[in-house]
Design goal:
By secondary structure, this protein is of the alpha+beta class. It folds into 2 domains: about 240 residues, Orthogonal Bundle (Helix Hairpins), CATH 1.10.287; about 130 residues, Glucose Permease (Domain IIA) (Distorted Sandwich), CATH 2.70.70. It is built from 5 helices and 13 strands. A hairpin with a 6-residue loop joins strand 2 and strand 3. It is rod-shaped, with a radius of gyration of 50 Å.
């Protein structure tokens, strides 16, 4: 586990060196909440990676998904290792209980053997005493009287008989106690044998749990190692693409600047033309106020669907720079029709490296500015030049160019400067 952590820390340092870490992850404990959090982060990531090459975007998304799995994998490994340690400790205690039960059983067996020998000895002693009394002098009081030659002999034999009876009585009492002890020892031995069987079963079960816990820990370690290795290879792949990505994005920036310059030049010429027309009109109508703008109002919604990505500045998580998302993304299925937002003239309908199939329409003066709109990532053109009407079919939704899914990237330009299309829609 320590080795896996060292590898993970090494990878983290490598990722930071090429700018691949977005920031600290939010701690989420509930699995469903964690999944929603990751899904949301990936969805936001797709927006941030718009205009990024598909291979690089896919690799970076994969890296972030892998990074999101690492904390859970590390937690699973920690839990598995702790469970394995607990199970091993439980098995050790169970083995000790078996050993204690076996030792107690052996001691009880020794006590039982000793007690049986003691009982046998006591029985033998009683038999020897009885045999000697019968052989030497009889046992009844009449035998003592009739067998005595003198009063002293009678008294001696009487005392001897009482002594023998006392010894025999004590021996018999001891024999009874020993028999009771024998029964108790036999019962205890049976209980200890049953306890040993139970302890052995518990030890086997504990061993099975310990083996299962160790296998689970090994599997969790393998999963974490696989994630760490996957991160390392993905990070290396991303690092290898950075140079080409920077060059490609530089070309896209040049392409965007060229479009802005084209539209700005159209606006400049239109402004000069409008100024000339206004000057001629004033010569002819010196006392008449300036005429109103040529057009007012809002634009026609270009395709069915809502805005799922807004206009504004975005931070590129791989190359670490801010760039403008110069329009809005309107969700839609591939092949869905796209319409001209207003009447105008098609400035261009061509294939570009970043925007894919793109249509640019100049709408002339609206609200006092030179307005143009662009329609990007089309799957096909319905117009390639000339004039178009408001609401006229100009193409179909697609995902050409640097696009992660079918949608329409719609832009509005005022005097050659990109502005938020919601000001016009």
């Amino acid at each position: 586990m320590a080795a896996a952590r060292r590898v993970a820390l090494t990878l983290l340092a490598a990722c930071c060196s090429v700018g691949l870490i977005l920031g600290p992850a939010t701690a989420v404990t509930d699995p469903s909440d964690r999944k929603r959090s990751v899904d949301k982060a990936i969805e936001n990531l797709k927006e941030d990676l718009e205009d990024t090459s598909a291979d690089l975007a896919a690799a970076y998304t994969k890296l972030k998904l892998t990074q999101a799995k690492v904390p859970a994998a590390q937690s699973a490994l920690d839990r598995a290792v702790a469970a394995a340690a607990d199970a091993s400790a439980e098995h050790t205690l169970a083995v000790q209980r078996v050993q204690l039960a076996k030792a107690s059983e052996a001691k009880a067996e020794q006590d039982l053997v000793a007690t049986r020998k003691s009982i046998a000895a006591s029985r033998d002693q009683v038999a020897r005493f009885a045999n000697r009394i019968y052989q030497d002098s009889g046992f009844g009081e009449m035998d003592m009287v009739l067998g005595s030659q003198t009063p002293q002999q009678f008294a001696d034999r009487l005392v001897l008989g009482e002594t023998v009876m006392d010894v025999q009585s004590a021996t018999m009492e001891r024999l009874g106690n020993q028999k009771a002890m024998l029964v108790a020892l036999e019962d205890r031995l049976a209980a200890l044998r049953a306890e040993a069987v139970t302890a052995e079963a518990a030890a086997k079960a504990a061993l099975d749990r310990a083996n299962a816990a160790r296998a689970s820990a090994a599997s969790a370690k393998s999963d974490l190692d696989a994630l760490v290795a996957d991160q390392a290879s993905t990070a290396a792949a991303i690092k290898g693409q950075l140079g080409a990505e920077k060059k490609r994005l530089a070309a896209l920036t040049a392409e965007s600047n060229a479009l802005k310059a084209t539209l700005a030049e159209i606006a400049r010429k239109r402004k000069l033309e409008e100024a000339r027309r206004l000057a001629e009109w004033k010569k002819k109508h010196p006392n008449t106020p300036k005429p109103p703008p040529t057009a007012t109002g809002t634009l026609f919604w270009p395709t069915a669907g809502g805005i799922n990505s807004a206009f504004g500045m975005r931070y590129h998580p791989i190359l670490h720079y801010w760039r403008l998302h110069a329009g809005v993304d309107i969700g839609g299925a591939c092949g869905q029709p796209i319409y001209a937002a207003e009447a105008g003239v098609v400035v261009e309908a061509r294939v570009t490296s970043g925007s894919g199939l793109r249509v640019v329409i100049d709408h002339g003066i609206m609200r006092g500015v030179s307005l143009a709109t662009t329609y990007n990532h089309l799957s096909r053109f319905a117009v390639t030049g000339g004039s178009v009407r408001r609401g006229q079919l100009i193409g179909s939704v697609g995902d050409t160019g640097l696009s992660t899914a079918c949608h329409l990237h719609f832009e509005t330009y005022e005097n050659g400067v990109p502005v938020n299309p919601t000001r016009w829609l």
